[in-house]
Amino acid sequence: EQVGVVIVGAGPAGLVLGNLLLDRGVDCVILERRARAAVEGRARAGFLAAHSVRVLTDNGLAAGLRARGRTHATCLFRGDRGEFTLDYGRLGRGEVHTVYPQQELVRDLVAEYLRRGGELWFGQEVEEISAGRVRVRGGQDVTGRYVAGCDGHRGVARRALIAQGTRTSRWDHGVSWLAVLAEAPPSMAAVGYALHERGFAGHMARTASVTRYYLQCPRGTDPAEWSEDRIWTELATRMRTAEFGPLRQGPVLEKAVVDLRSDVLESPGAGRLWLAGDAAGLISPSAAKGANLAVLQAELLAHALTEALTRGDETGLARYAADALPRVWRAHEFSHWMSGLLHGPADDGAEARYGRALQYARLESLRTSRTHQDYFAENYTGI
Ligand code: FAS
User: Fold this and answer.
1) Of 13, 197, 210, 264, which sits with the fewest C-beta atoms within 10 Å of its C-beta?
2) What is the DSSP letter of 89?
3) pLDDT tens readout for residues 215-244
4) Up-side HSE of residue 242: CA atoms within 13 Å toward CB?
C-alpha cells in the first residue's frame, strides 16, 4: 500500500526528515542500504550550528547533544606571522557551535525515529526511483505519494532528478584534504587553522579522546602514502609546534582523502521527488556546513510535505527551492571564501605569489578588523 513519504537514506537529512514527519502525523518509511551498525559508526561531521541545535531541540531530538555535546566558540589561526584567536561566540550574532560527532547524532535520530514508531529498513538498496515508486534491489517496490531523496551525493535520487533535466552548478576547489581521525585528546581548546607554505593543516575536536586533523594534499593522493609518523611530522611542521607547543599524538584510527568540490542542484525537487542534504548539493568541508545544511533542508522539506499531505497544499513544495537556496548559497559563498583563506597556491611563480599574498591579506584583515571578525563569526556559525 502507498505511504505518505518514502525516504531514501538514513543520514542526518533522512533521519531528521523522518522524525519531523512522524511528529506531524505523516506516515513514512526510510530505506537505508547499509546495516544499522555501519550507519551509526560512520565518523564524518562534528560541528552543529546554532540553527541545527534549534531545529533538533524544537523537535525533541536534542537529548544526546544536550547531554554529551560541548559548546565551542573559539578558533585560532596560525601563519608565518604568529597566531591569533577569534572568540567567535562573542562576535557577530554571538552564536556558538556544538561539538557532537555526526555518528552520535545519527544514533540518537535512529533511536528516536524507531521510538516514534517509524519504519526504517536497513540493508535495503534502492536501485530506481520513478514517479513515487521506489525499486529496492532484490526486494519489492515501495510506493509513496512523495519520495524524499536523502541518499547523499552519489545517490540514485540525485541522478533521477538530473535525468529529469535539473542542472547543477559546480566548483572544484582544486584542493584535497587528508582527513585523519586520531585517538588522541585535542591539542588545543580551539578549532585550529594553520596556513603554511607547505599547505593547510586543521585541528578539530570530536570528543575528549578523539580529534580530527586535516592536511592539504595534492589531488589524487593515496592515503596509504601517509604513515602515522609522516602524518604527525607534517602536522607538527605546518602547525608550527616549535613555536606554539607540541600536538597530543595517538594512534590514527582513520585516514581518507576528501577532494574539496562543491555543487548545487538548481532545483532540489520536482513533482513527487524532493531532495535534501548532500543529495541536493555537496559543500566542501572547509567551513563545516554539510550536515548543517542537511538539517536546514530536512526541516523545510518536512514542513512542505506535511502541508501537501495533510491539507493538499503544495505551496510549500513550490517554495522549497526559494526558501532553501538563498541560505544554501550563503553557506557556499562563505565556504568558498574560507577555502581561499586556508589554501595557498601549490606551485610557485608570479600568479602563485599573487594568490599567496591574497591569502595573507585575508588573514591580516581577519586579525585586525572587528567588522571582518563579526562577518566571519556570523557566517562561520550561521546557516
Ligand atoms: P549522508 O551521505 O550522510 O547519508 C546518505 C545515506 O543514504 C547514507 O547512510 C547512505 O548509506 C544512504 N544511501 C546512499 N545511497 C543509497 C541507496 N541507493 N539506497 C539506500 N540508501 C542509500 N559537515 C558538517 O556540517 N560539519 C563537519 O565538520 C563535516 N565534516 C566532514 C568531514 C568529512 C571527512 C566528510 C566526508 C564530510 C564532512 N561533512 C561535514 C559533511 C557530511 O557530514 C555531510 O554533509 C552529511 O553527512 C550529509 O548528510 P546526508 O545528506 O544525510 O547524507
Assistant:
1) 197
2) G
3) 999 999 999 999 999 999 999 999 999 999
4) 5
Is residue 101 within 6 Å of ligand 1 at its C-beta? no
Domains along the chain with CATH numbers = 2-71+97-171+261-337 (3.50.50.60), 173-260+347-381 (3.30.9.10)
Q: Is residue 346's pLDDT more than 80?
A: no
3-state secondary structure of 251: coil
β-pairing, 47-48 vs 191-194, is unpaired
Q: Would you name the residues annotated as active-site residues?
A: 72, 193, 285, 289, 380
| Mean of pLDDT values over 33-59 | 95
Task: Find the farthest-apart pair of alpha carbons in the chain and give their distance in angstroms, rounded.
Answer: 66
User: Is this model's pTM higher than 0.90 or not?
Assistant: yes
Q: Report how far apart, in Å, the C-alpha atoms of 47 and of each of 89, 118, 213, 248, 349 are.
A: 14, 27, 14, 21, 37
Q: Is the per-residue pLDDT at 1 higher than 80?
A: no
Would the pLDDT of 66 be above 80? yes
3-state helix, strand, coil in the chain (%, to 5): 40, 25, 30
258 lines ligand 1 (CB under 6 A): yes
Digit-coded pLDDT (tens) for 347-375:
789 999 999 999 999 999 999 999 999 99
